[in-house]
Amino acid sequence: NTTVFRNDFTAKQAKVLYITSDCLLGGAGNGHYHNYAELYITLRGKVQFLFEDMATKERTMHNATETGRVIVPKNMPHAAKARRGTVLMGFTEQIFTSGEADEKAYPLSWN
Q: Can you give the pTM of this predicted structure?
């Protein structure tokens, strides 16, 4: 099935993440990118997203709290930190098969 969000994102797959301890999400927290966009909606708690432009190396950070909505653009290196007790929904433009098949590692650290 396909779900459209406000005409700016079409989801092919959805997941709910229940965070049981403070953690880094995706790519072992070191960053990754993929050839499809993602949408995250924070239902409870807090998530920090770190993005880096591959060409300019410019970094931006986005904090998503309850009802916060973040779109991760296609081929945008990113990483995320989530707090214990956070609940978020994640949506992808393509069906996720595996980290090995879908994600490309990118040296993006929180330092």
A: 0.85
Q: How confident is the model at residue 50 (pLDDT cuts 50, 70, 90)?
A: very high
Identify any residues that bridge with 48 across adjacent strands, giving them in sequence order.
63, 81
Nearest by Cα to 78 from 110, 51, 55, 38 = 51
Q: Output DSSP code: residue 102.
A: H
Alpha carbon 44 to its chain's center: 16
Question: Residue 64 forms beta bridges with which residues?
Answer: 47
Query: What is the DSSP code string of 48-97?
Result: EEEEE-TTT--EEEEEE-TT-EEEE-TT--EEEEE-TT-EEEEEESS---
